[in-house]
């Protein structure tokens, strides 16, 4: 019986590959391995999400992932379409990114445990990557 169970994932992947055109996207400079994602149709912008701490990738936005400008600056989009430098919904998450004027760098504050750290937690390490 266990010999047949390994066939299930193979069957699922095979069926999915018949329904969606697949392409290998060039390796992201922070990624450890190559990422295989569905190919976007002409004229559409498609994003996937990459976690710089864990290396995970996914299609679903894990929650208010910022956009990145060509110069590397991060920004958020309001409902009216204007760029904002700070996430207006940050208060609802466990981790908040703060800035220390004294140290001249960001630090991270956990609202539940009251812990502060210089290291970016995995919850805040998601990046929005435009599919090419």
Question: What summary fits the major beta sheet?
Answer: 3 strands, antiparallel
Number of separate strands: 11
Query: What share of the residues lie within helices?
Result: 10-25%
Q: Going across the biggest sheet, name each strand in turn.
A: 4-3-11
Radius of gyration: 19 Å
Overall shape: it is: globular
Classification by helices and strands: alpha+beta
Strand content: 25-35%
Average predicted local confidence, pLDDT: 74
What would you say this structure looks like, in words?
- The chain has helices at 2-5, 7-19, and strands at residues 22-25, 35-38, 47-51, 57-58, 67-68, 74-77, 83-84, 95-100, 105-110, 116-117, 126-130.
- The protein has 132 residues and is an alpha+beta fold.
- The strands form 4 sheets. It has a 3-stranded antiparallel sheet with strand order 4-3-11, with no helix packed on it.
- A hairpin with a 5-residue loop joins β3 and β4.
């Amino acid at each position: 019986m266990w010999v047949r169970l390994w066939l299930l994932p193979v069957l699922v992947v095979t069926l999915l590959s018949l329904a969606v055109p697949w392409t290998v996207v060039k390796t992201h400079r922070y990624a450890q391995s190559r990422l295989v994602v569905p190919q976007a149709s002409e004229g559409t912008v498609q994003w996937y999400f990459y976690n710089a701490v864990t290396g995970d990738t996914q299609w679903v936005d894990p929650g208010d992932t910022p956009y990145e400008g060509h110069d590397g600056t991060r920004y958020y989009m309001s409902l009216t379409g204007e760029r904002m430098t700070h996430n207006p919904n940050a208060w609802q998450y466990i981790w908040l990114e703060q800035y220390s004027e004294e140290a001249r760098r960001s630090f991270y504050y956990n609202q539940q445990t009251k812990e502060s750290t210089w290291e970016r937690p995995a919850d805040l390490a998601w990046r929005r990557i435009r599919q090419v």
